[in-house]
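QA checklist item 7 of 12: single-chain prediction sanity check.
[x] sequence parsed
[x] length recorded as 331
[x] structure emitted
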Amino acid sequence: MKIKFSKENLKDLLYLLILGLFIYLFMFMRLPYYIDKPGNIDDISKYITIDDSYKPDSTLNSTYVDEFSKVNLSLYLYSFLNKDWDVVKISDELAEGQSESDAKFAGKADIESSRDYAIISAYKLANKSYKVNGYKLYAIYIFPQAKTDLKVGDSIKSINGIAITSGKQIKELIQTYKDGDKLNIIANDNDTRYAIVFNENNNNYIGIQFDEDFDLEEDPKVTYNIGDNVSGPSAGFMMSLYIYSNITNFDLPDNLVIAGTGTIDSDGNVGPIGGVKYKIIGAANNGASVFFVPSDNYDEAVKVKEEHKFNIDVVKVDTLSDAIKYLESKR
């Protein structure tokens, strides 16, 4: 049996195919881009619980970059109508040689280490009790020039028979070797790995970036309830400020919406972050009256504030103590 198509049927079929192609291109085909845009603010009390802690009247809020990770053609074109949205190539968001899955692992490892640094830095400054019961050091990025069989996610136990207890220790240990020396590494449960030392600008490296993970026991106890969609280290400073204010009953100025961003280390130093443009816009649009920002990001934050004529205090901080001194001056 033969099926015959009239010209009208063929024309209708062609129209359907063209329509289907347009729908696919505009709605379903993923483009190799992300779209970054201002996010909201998150009251830190929603995802940190501290035993027997004081609850201030003002709120301490983290800020973040909102990101569309699956961009179709319609969203791509719509982004050009929003001056605060930016289209970014996926490849530009990744380090050289880094896969998307490795980048996601690094982001999760960053938030894990930031949680620990936030506790340690706050408890140190408050002279409160904490103890380190265990420690892990994870490889989160392997630089292209590295000569190693370590993989992202490997946990480093020892180097040349020396137990590893901090990232700082690795940096110092590597300096005791010569260019070209081979390091024997025990990773994970008992896997044998290696890395070759190389010298650049009179410093030794093995071309591996690490994140630390502590098994902490602190009094009072801090419990985190952070969702799976949160990653990166930039909330560390605000988490530390929130923890400090709670465990010391710190008297915050009344009825302020306080927002901020910045990494934190175990000594309370605040480090630079990316996406400050989106974070200050999100803070101002959601009613924040104070925006804490690392020194390295301060000029950009002030520029965005002035361009948008935001009524928000932009406060430069280098340490956790800087933020506390500022808040004391506002009481």
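[x] summary fact logged: Residues 33-71+114-128+220-329 form a domain with the Ribosomal Protein S5; domain 2 fold (CATH 3.30.230.10).
[ ] second reviewer sign-off
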